[in-house]
User: Fold 5-keto-4-deoxy-D-glucarate aldolase from Colletotrichum spaethianum.
Amino acid sequence: MCYYAGLSALPITRFLAPMGYDAVWIDWEHTSCNVETMTSMVHEAIFMSQGRTIPWVRVPGHDHAAIGYALDAGASIVIPQVETVEEAKHVLSSAKFGTKQRGTRSAPPFRLIPFLTDTPYDPSRDVHKCLNDQAAIMIQIESAEGVRNLDAILTECPDIDVVWFGTLDCRVSMNLEAKMGGMGADEPEWLEISKLFFDTIDKHDKPYAGFAFCAPPYGSPEKLREAAKRMSLITMSADVLHLGAMAQDLMTAKEAVGPVGQKNGTNGKE
Assistant:
């Protein structure tokens, strides 16, 4: 169970971390912040949850440096808009040390403290080989082209750990109404591309991730239970949704108080 951190706000990360979520999705793609803020959010999520909450960072594109920053912070990574085998290979190369997947990730000389935090979890291998396996790599398939190329991507890039079906972006790219990523959608071309996506991840036995909210207006417990039959990582809540609900609180309060109670400076007098 994962929550979506749509705001680059360290106090919110610190507030939510002790709640016991399995993971947090830090959206560095759509809520800009500097590297230090992203790194601090990752560290706070880990520290304040006592290691319970795994941080994922959606990086802003396929940039080699951004991928390295997120991995050096200690996060697993989410790569948006993967459409081709070549893009997937570039991502894996940026995320790996050594010859595995032609790794080009730079080994940070002092990110790990010698003889203190550079101890590999498997003493039969060196620390960089262990690090290759510690951070997970999730790709987002967010277009019809990406879905059609997914079989080739997973065949050529077996080190991809998780696949996210970005239904909102995919529908927009197909010139279909967004419908919050396909809620109730029944267009033939959409049903066809959705079936191809799921058939492909089943063929490769790859974990699938996505949104499945547990409460209205975007979900329900029943929809969450249905999603859990397929999803390995379920993003089922979001800071922005709960903050957005404050607008409804304001409307309810105004209706309850009425126009007289909203006048300033009258101290309740007519």
